[in-house]
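Dig into my protein:

:::
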Amino acid sequence: MAAAPCSLIAPPTSRFDCVPLTIVLRPYPTRLPLCEIKRGRLLVRAAVAADSASKTGVAVVRIGTRGSPLALAQAYETRNKLKAAHPELLEDGAVEVVIIKTTGDKILNQPLADIGGKGLFTKEIDEALLEGKIDIAVHSMKDVPTYLPEGTILPCNLPREDVRDAFICSISSSLAELPGGSVVGTASLRRQSQLLYRYPSLKVVNFRGNVQTRLRKLSEGSVHATLLALAGLKRLDMTQHVTAILSTDEMLPAIAQGAIGIACRIGDEKMEKYLQILNHEETRLAVVCERAFLETLDGSCRTPIAGYAYCGNDGCCHFRGLVASPDGTRVLETTQKGLYTCEDMIALGKDAGKDLLQRAGTHFFDW
């Protein structure tokens, strides 16, 4: 499989809470510190656990996920695709969805940048995977850091959903029609910077929570408008709330927006085989390109970064990337084109990042 060379790794660091859907939330029992677990021993323990589970009738594949409605929709999509592709998983109980509450789910009253960044939505799930508590982990790829925890691999991306953002508002039919001083709620610095660049008279406020929570706050008048990923609204069958769809020229998407990634342990051949048939290679390569761009910029949640790679009508990879100041006063863009192959697209993403780094200057990212 070609996924391994396109991943970066770094060790996990903290504990987690893991919850099967039918069980009340509880912490896992005491375990060895991760620093004491050698890779070989870990994989043996995980393999023994999986073999034992299959013999006792417990789930053959345990899918780890966050507990938000969108995360669960993505986990159920994964489950359904697994069952459709592998007849042995059609038996009742063969696939189990396990909810894992992450730090990012627990702290909702602060901007992500102030509490540690995007890894907050994946760290506990990855630790559960390494401990053998789950067999595969389903992530929104835009939440996945540019490194993967040591001992894990991300060999599968499901077909990408619509990458565009949706404008949701009850007082205007478009962003351009919003009156000056209107309040737009978003937790994304990427959206904030691009909004203020085009519409500096708007006011942008921090606006966190799952899709349902943000729509409720909007209906209660907390803000005049908000922006949400169209992919999430489609997966939740909630597109009736959309006022307008923003083109990628109006609002460049987040890195890997609309893509679902599925991780497993290195050496777990059974899970790799299950996932291999689900992988959508065009999506995986686009994600690889965009993440190479992000990695080169060494971006954090304090830096507004956007990027989108896609296969054009000519069969080539077309990429557009952007960095900006949070207040939108400075926006730098780059475009690249190359062959639609893993090696070429990694190089293309890196070249795009280097181009913006050179043009931005030394202190551009010191927010």
Notes: The longest strand covers residues 317-324. Confidence is low (pLDDT under 50) at residues 1-54. The CA atoms of residues 13 and 34 lie 8 Å apart. The chain has eleven helices and 16 strands.
